[in-house]
Each structure stands twice: as structure tokens, then as C-alpha cells.
Design a protein that fits this description.
Number of helices: 10
CATH class of the largest domain: Mainly Alpha
Radius of gyration: 20 Å
Shape: globular
Number of domains: 2
Distance between the termini: 55 Å
Order of helices and strands: HHHHHHHHHH
Largest sheet: none
CATH topology of the largest domain: Arc Repressor Mutant, subunit A
CATH architecture of the largest domain: Orthogonal Bundle
Low-confidence stretches: 104-119, 181-192
Number of strands: 0
Strand content: under 5%
């Protein structure tokens, strides 16, 4: 798609594109895929999918979204809706492959100190340092936009377990991503 046809769709809001796609306009849905494909793959990568697997699951998620586009009511964002679809598809794949069975018994990742001297925020690296259960729960609740209850249902785990994984994961992320420079923190206190 190029030229005036592309710019016609590029100027439309996601809700308008969804309405056109529901009416059978495939190019409108193509614009939605173009806009949100990398974000969906990013959520899947943060959940632990390898690049090729993230691509496969994202493609399946967009196919599912296309088949169910009439169900999208615009109450949330299209990006959030398709990310939820992708997260659930990935979890089904994990269950099918029986890779998720160790969620409740695994050892958390070591809290290794950051090695980046310039204190750049490395969210991807920080997420990789979390245990599998913590990474999946945090990503589902904050990356894919699922509630704790929805994540618990999708993971087939008790709600309290999901909340614990999210809380521990967030604490580890805060520690890992916090500034290392104590003088900077003290300086902020002194100015307050």
C-alpha cells in the first residue's frame, strides 16, 4: 500500500480503522498491523518469547483480531486489545509446550548489580533478570494490560500468587533500575 491510499488510512484513528476493517476493508486492518505490530512483538519478547516465536504469536494474534474485529468496541485501545490476545495466545503455547509448569516452584533470578556505568535504563535487561513467573506476570499486567485477575485466570494460578509475583517483580525492577549514585539521591533530599 502506498501513495494516496496509504495516506488515507494513515490519517485515520484506530477506532475508525477497526470499523472499516469490520466492514471488510483489509487495507484498514493492514494499517493497524503496521502501527502496532512491533509493540505486540515487544510485549511477547518481554514475556520471554524468542524473536521468531514472538513473530509467530504476533501474527496469530493479528489473525485472531481480524477474525474478531467486530467484537472490538473501542472501549480501550486497539493496541491494548491485541496485546491481550497475543499474551493469551503465548500463554496457551507455553501451556501446550508444558514450559509453564514450573511457574510456582522456580527459583528467582539472582539480583546481580547493574554493570552499566552510565545508568541508562535497560528495561529489557532488567526484565530478563527476573524469574520466569515474575517476568510473565509483570509483563502481562503492565505490558499487555491484563488485570491481576485476568492474568491469574490465563495462567491458571491463584490470584494471590500472581499478585505476589507482580509485587516481587516490581520491587526487583525498582532496585535494578534505581540510580546507583547515592550522592544524587542525597542531593535531591537536601533540595527538598
Amino acid at each position: 500500500m502506498s501513495g494516496p491510499e496509504h495516506s488515507r488510512f494513515a490519517a485515520l484513528h484506530d477506532v475508525e480503522l477497526c470499523a472499516l476493517a469490520a466492514a471488510g476493508e483489509r487495507r484498514a486492518f493492514g494499517e493497524l498491523v503496521r502501527r502496532h505490530g512491533s509493540a505486540v512483538r515487544g510485549v511477547l519478547r518481554r514475556m520471554g518469547a524468542h524473536a521468531a516465536e514472538a513473530d509467530d504469536v504476533a501474527q496469530d494474534a493479528f489473525l485472531t483480531a481480524f477474525e474478531r474485529i467486530a467484537e472490538f468496541r473501542g472501549e480501550g485501545t486497539f493496541a491494548g486489545w491485541v496485546k491481550k490476545i497475543a499474551a493469551r495466545l503465548y500463554l496457551r503455547r507455553l501451556h501446550r509446550d508444558r514450559r509453564l509448569g514450573a511457574l510456582t516452584v522456580e527459583e528467582p533470578a539472582d539480583d546481580a548489580p547493574r554493570s552499566d556505568a552510565d545508568a541508562a535504563i535497560d528495561l529489557e535487561g532488567a526484565l530478563k533478570a527476573l524469574g520466569t513467573a515474575e517476568r510473565i506476570c509483570v509483563t502481562m499486567c503492565f505490558g499487555a494490560g491484563l488485570s491481576h485477575s485476568e492474568a491469574a485466570e490465563a495462567l491458571n494460578l491463584p490470584l494471590g500468587t500472581v499478585k505476589s509475583h507482580v509485587k516481587r517483580g516490581l520491587e526487583k525492577l525498582r532496585t535494578r533500575l534505581a540510580p546507583d549514585n547515592g550522592a544524587l539521591v542525597e542531593g535531591r533530599r537536601g533540595n527538598g
